Amino acid sequence: MAAQFDINELHWLLDIVQSIDVGVVVLDRDYRIEVWNSFMENHSGLSSAEAAQRSLFELFPEIDQDWFSRKLETAVLLGTRAFTIWEQRPYLIRFNSYQPITGLADAMYQNVTIMPLRNPRGEADHVCLIIYDVTGIALNKRQLEAANLQLREQAHRDGMTGLLNRRYWEQSLEREFARYQRYETPASLVMFDIDNFKPINDNHGHQTGDEVIREAARVIREHARETDYAGRYGGEEFVLLLPDTSLQGAAQLAERLRQAMERLIVEHLEQRVSFTISLGVAQFSEEMSSAFDLVAAADSALYQSKQAGRNRTTLHTSDDT
């Protein structure tokens, strides 16, 4: 009677293993498959009969055999469960993802439990793998991380132009100044504003004036390198911090910017507006005691460009201090 009860229990257990929505695989010590439940059948396209006594590594060559063997053998040696999580490895066996949000992930993200199975003699002669589909969890986390990153990025950006806002740009300037003090690496600053911007607003309207600012920002982005810090300093005034750049290198870039702005025609609300910019360029020097001395030097050079008739670039030199 007891034996019959045990047999019934075994049947119930097998029914449960087949019906649960996780992968259950039992391997012998040579990594041959002995149990392959319906979850594994559905996602692999292999029936339990087709998988039986086949090597896991033969059926799924994408598995890193050295890594997985070390993981499994350590679990057997210690007699404890081992785990793999999707953050470290997206999957053990590559299955296609059939989640409702498919399209964000081609493959199923998986967490895996590796569990040694002992025979009546206490020997771990089999190992059970339990494979969990965590695609939904993984994608939600990835989307949340991407959203948080976007929020952090937006917090650093000027809403109108997409350039760095003044606060974040100034923090970047201070970091670059600290790098200059430590390593004596050159860095230069181009500062400019739009000439006669108030008449543009007065004659064409503030919406057109805003479009001029956006177009000026677009030109800056086109000329800036990935390592440069382009920012809107306020109103129609812009800054471009150039790490690892000498005064002469910055002057060349400033002239390219000036010429590009001069050629630009902004079309908005059936109006065509052209404009010019005045620029000041300065480089970190030993005489500077703070990052903002560089801003003051570039601003002084910019003022000279304005005084000399606008639409020109002026370099700040040590004689100007």
Automatic annotation (TrEMBL):
One of its GO terms (molecular function) is diguanylate cyclase activity. Its main location: membrane. One of its GO terms (biological process) is cell adhesion involved in single-species biofilm formation. It comes from the Bacteria. It is found in: Cell inner membrane. Coiled coil: none annotated. One of its GO terms (cellular component) is plasma membrane. Residues 185-318 form the GGDEF domain. Residues 9-79 form the PAS domain. Its EC number is 2.7.7.65. CDD domains: GGDEF, PAS. Its cofactor is Mg(2+). It catalyses: 2 GTP = 3',3'-c-di-GMP + 2 diphosphate. Keywords: Kinase, Transferase. This is diguanylate cyclase. It comes from Halopseudomonas phragmitis.
